[in-house]
Amino acid sequence: MPEFHTPPIMPMAIRFDHEQLTLAPAGPTLTRRMSDLEGLFRDEAARAAAAAGENPVVYTVTSSPVPEANRELPQSITTIMPGTTSGEFWMTKGHQHPDHQGEIYLAITGRGGILMFDGEQTSWLEMLPGTIGYIPPGWAHRSVNTGTEPYAFLAVYPGGAGHDYDWVVEHGMGKRAFRGPDGSALLRPFAE
Ligand code: S6P
Ligand code: ZN
């Protein structure tokens, strides 16, 4: 066994329930409501009104006990509810990993997409159950529910990479995903 500055956790089996959308044993769970998403939708007034009203849950993130620590590979299931705010699909906050490392998502149920931005280019990956979306190092990423059912995916990511949410607030994501006339995703320039 090599010497580590912070000793890794012990090997463990984690039960992935793709119907209940749970990991067992479970680690921390996070709930993001409309009130947590200030300044992220194009129509901030509509977002603020929804936050002041019913303040719906937009997404949850449930994790396994594998810690966000250097060299570990934590996992989480994100479930985004279906919905739009002034036509813009409900989505995660989005972040950049300050210590640039890759990450994978496996779509479990529903229909969605990954919007990625490297500061210049935007990339959009359609995510259907069974799709593995690869997020290379250096690409900020945001998940979007483009369907009419909850969209859920499993994420596996480097535990020491960190999460920078301000980067997305500062730089945007290049594009935004709106519901098009036929119901599918229509990408429009971020600042349009
Ligand atoms: C972690 C990974 C996901 C997201 C989750 C919520 O690196 O990308 O688990 O944390 O989908 O998104 P966000 O942008 O609110 O962290
Ligand atoms: Zn990430």
Any overview of this molecule?
This is glucose-6-phosphate isomerase. It is a single chain. The protein is mainly β and 192 residues long. The protein has a single domain, classed as Sandwich (Jelly Rolls). It contains two helices and 15 strands. The protein has a six-stranded antiparallel sheet with strand order 3-4-5-13-8-11, with no helix packed on it. The protein has a three-stranded antiparallel sheet with strand order 10-9-12, with no helix packed on it. Strands 1-2 form a two-stranded antiparallel sheet. The radius of gyration is 17 Å and the shape is globular. The model has no long low-confidence stretch (mean pLDDT 97). It binds D-sorbitol-6-phosphate and zinc ion. The site of zinc ion has 5 residues, from loops. Zinc ion binds at residues 95, 97, 103, 141, 157.
In short:
The chain has 192 residues and is mainly β. 8% of the residues lie in helices and 38% in strands.
Topology:
Elements: E1 15-17, E2 22-24, E3 29-33, H1 44-52, E4 57-63, E5 75-80, E6 84-85, E7 88-89, E8 103-109, E9 112-117, E10 122-127, E11 132-135, E12 140-145, E13 151-156, H2 166-171, E14 175-179, E15 185-189
